[in-house]
Amino acid sequence: MQISFEDEKPIFIQIAEGIEDAILTGAYVEEGQIPSITEFSVNFKINPATALKGINLLVEEGIIFKKRGVGMFVQKGAVEQLKNKRKEQFFDHYVKNLIEEAKKLRISSQEILRMVERGFDE
Length: 122
Known about the structure:
CATH superfamily of the largest domain: Winged helix-like DNA-binding domain superfamily/Winged helix DNA-binding domain
Number of domains: 2
């Protein structure tokens, strides 16, 4: 996970997305423990409150849960939940824009599919 202090995206969001990525890639497994807030703050040289804010986003979404006195853990089912979330984001941020531009250019859905297939082949 990398944090960019020059990125427009707030650091706490970058922390949350980095944890999500680690869950999706299997670096953090379901029901497994994630690093502590202190570890995140030391490793990335950020304020612990910033790290906590990012982790709390995932707690609110049910991706992470806290075991009192033990630490933070990945919720069972988190991978599937994150895949669904990311697919919706992908549709909202990329596919809708693609279709909007295609309509302006009068590109058919068949042409778009051919372009996508070409992209996968390259």
